Each structure stands twice: as C-alpha cells, then as structure tokens.
Structure prediction request, 170 residues.
Amino acid sequence: MDKGTSCCFTGHRPDKLPWGGREADPRCQALKARVARAVEEAWAAGFTHFICGMARGCDLYFAEAVLALRQRRPEIALECARPCETQADSWPAPERERYQNILDRCNYETLVQHHYDRFCMARRNRYMVDRSSRLIAVYNGVPKGGTAQTLAYAMKRGLETCILSLEETP
Prediction:
C-alpha cells in the first residue's frame, strides 16, 4: 500500500452522537451522506486505499461508504484495522453481525495486537495515521477522546484533513 494513496478515518461512537444509535434519524442520514461524499472526493483526488478502525458508529458508516463506492470503482481497497481480537465481542448482536459483514467484504484485515489493553485503540489509530496521507474525521469539537487524539496526531504528522462536523446540514 502506498501512503500517498491511502486515506484513514476517525469518528465518534454512538454515545457521542446526538442521535445515539438511531441511524434512521435524519441527522444521521445526512452525516452518512457527507461521509460518502468525503470518500468519493478522496477517490477523485487519487486515494484508492481506505483504512477503517472498525469502531461502532461513524467508523462503520465510513466502511460501508467505501464498500458502496467500491461497487462502482473496483480499484478501491478497504483495510479494516482491528485494535484487538475481541473488539466487537461485547457489542449487541446486530452490530456484531454488521462488523463481521464488513470484515467479510474488506480487502485487507490488519490485527494490530491480539489481546486488549488500554493502549490498543491508540496503537490502532497511530497505525492508520502512519500509513496514510489523508484523514477524514467526524468530529464534535470536544478536545478529548480518541477522535480528538487521532485528529491531533494526524495534523502533527502532516496529513491532509477533512473534518466533518456533526452540526452541518446536508
């Protein structure tokens, strides 16, 4: 994979989204459309390798947008970067099925480490940023948490950033 054509993603889990896990909410539908546009714009700019951290919420929206675009643009590859083997073990069954469905359709699956520890998510985030030249982020502006840390690390490393606010309208 060429870092120059790789784009990674960071975004919030459902507990930090105004609509929670209610994906039928019009605000969620609008965000999914903006994520899909950002993926398409990245492809139009020459990005063909997309790396997703596979967390609940926005990460899964991103992975599904990449897979949808790949149906029309078969040169696109999706890499699922899992922080540990047990990432989805405690998730509700429908989300575990969604997670597995994405893994089954991705081009590459990277396991950052076998067992969970309190640093595995940060290691996964650094893995993605270190192998990319663009970051797409869904960010609520709160300066703490994994999304903020990943965005700060990407900016420090000089990645192009595309920040999608939760407040934007479609």
Summary: The mean pLDDT is 95. The chain has one domain: 3-165. The first strand starts at residue 6 and ends at 10.
